[in-house]
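Lab notebook, bench 4. Still working through the backlog of constructs that have no structural model yet. Next entry is a single chain of 413 residues. Request: give me the structure tokens for it.
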Amino acid sequence: MAAPASTSPTSARPVAAVTGALLAMYATSPGQTYVVSSFNDSLTSPEGLGLAATELSGSYLVGTLLSAACLTQAGKVADRIGPRRMIAVAGVGLAAAGALFSSVSSIVTLTIAFFGLRFFGQGVMSLASSHALALRFEARLGSVEGLRGAIVSVAIATAPIIAVWTIGAAGWRSAAWMLTLGAGALATFAALVIMDADPPPEPPRSAPPDGQRPAHAPGSYTLAEARRTAAFWILLGSTAFTAGLITAVHFHLQPLLRESGLDPEQAARTFVPFAACGLAATLVGGVMVDRFPAPPLLAAAMAAIGAGAAVMGAVDAAWAGMAGMAVIGLGHGLGGAVGAPTLARYFGRAHHGAIRGLAGTAAVAGSAAGPYALSAAAAATGGFGPGVLALSALAVPTVIAALALRRPTRGAR
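Model written out:
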């Protein structure tokens, strides 16, 4: 691969790397729950597929778990071919999955479509965009990951509204292929036109906080070595908790808020405070993790997610839904800004794709289990609120584990 003309932070190359990664991250939207959930009413209505909530959640569970099972291997492929090519492949795959989604006629084909959307969108494309930043940046990795998290907040604020409008204007089947084709084209353009060839990282300008291992250190961990450390599983556990709880709330947001008298458009608007607070938290959190130890920041993020979910479980008015989503957004933004840089700094970049792939597996597996668990709880209790309250209690052990997080050392288990 051609070397970049310059690795100076003021050169155009880092700007191209960040811009391409941000566009790719926005393009993951059709594979993310905040857009997929916009099709919820269409898939459960008699005019659509007429599925029950548990059938829809079960299909989403299976498709998402299958995608999670493939992500570690996808990360290993990214280590070999580089993140730009991986983003381009994911863009094509996402468009193909959307074409299938637009023509589903049974729960089997719907499950296959969910697999494609989740694997190429939430999984591979998200993984590769983070991998691209980890290869390029070191001292400023938290800050640029904060920007990546910020674009997620922008997507959460805008993409569901775009999806709901497109479904209303063109029907859900046409909307499915329109949204995924546009996203796939955007990702492919970002990878092949904007991003430069995968470069070595920028030279370190300062020591990372709390003695974290530099991303390019010779002592990088292999995936097998990382799996033998407590820090790895604490980081994966926080990732799985975050993905599971937030995905459960987002996927069932329409029926959850309908219990409080809100219609689908009002439910979609609650993504705005979620995104706005997430945007602020991820930008501030990215700067903070470049300067302060990760454990208390991660613990604060997990506590905010749990508290926001507790509010959502007891919501009885539109303002409460807005408030609950805002607090969850704060935790989501801070957790995302802290987790990805810490993973790269603790374990290095030599095998970052594979390690990031397994972290992605944890996230996708959590996002698969959360909606199904919540739908099962709703079927048993007659409402979604009690299930959300139960899930929020999982924040307690997650916060305790985050406070115990320490940088791994050779020989530690």
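Notes after review: Residues 1-12, 202-207, 211-218 have pLDDT under 50 and may be disordered. The two ends are 37 Å apart (CA to CA). Flag for follow-up if needed.
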